[in-house]
């Protein structure tokens, strides 16, 4: 029996530039690239850590579309700095959150937003709820 997996597909204007960005910012490894007419990417796969994503250039069948991903890392500040250095912009600065995570959000040059997340505390769901309720007042 095959294991079910889900592979996100990014549709962007400039797939080759995006792949290079993810290589520089996230250490992505290109696994496969299939060019179509004019050299545009019709399908490519790349790996970031243990995750595989696919990507293609936008076309008349698949317009460019925004996406939001959470990137779980050991050092949120280092990951955020790498994204910024490669050309991403800060949407929300990386900071400690009451729910036990150090998080922030950055937007890459292709309209994809990345929540950079580092676990700082192992909290029960009840403690997270208590902290969020206490901060909402």
From TrEMBL:
Listed InterPro entries: Glyas_Bleomycin-R_OHBP_Dase, Glyas_Fos-R_dOase_dom, VOC_core
Q: Entry's Gene3D superfamilies?
A: 3.30.720.110, 3.30.720.120
> Pfam families this protein is in?
Glyoxalase (PF00903)
Domain of life assignment: Bacteria
Q: Where is the signal peptide?
A: none
Q: Using the record's annotation, list all stretches that form the VOC domain.
A: 1-119
Its protein name is VOC family protein
Name its species. Answer: Jiangella asiatica
């Amino acid at each position: 029996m095959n294991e079910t997996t889900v592979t996100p597909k990014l549709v962007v204007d400039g797939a080759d530039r995006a792949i290079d960005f993810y290589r520089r910012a996230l250490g992505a490894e290109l696994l496969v690239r299939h060019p179509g007419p004019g050299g545009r990417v019709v399908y490519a796969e790349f790996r970031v850590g243990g995750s595989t994503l696919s990507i293609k250039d936008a076309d008349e069948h698949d317009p460019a579309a925004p996406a939001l991903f959470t990137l779980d890392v050991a050092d949120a500040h280092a990951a955020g700095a790498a994204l910024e250095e490669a050309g991403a912009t800060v949407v929300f600065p990386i900071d400690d959150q009451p729910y036990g995570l150090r998080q922030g959000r950055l937007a890459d040059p292709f309209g994809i937003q990345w929540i950079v997340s580092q676990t700082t505390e192992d909290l029960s769901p009840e403690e997270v709820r208590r902290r969020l309720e206490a901060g909402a007042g």
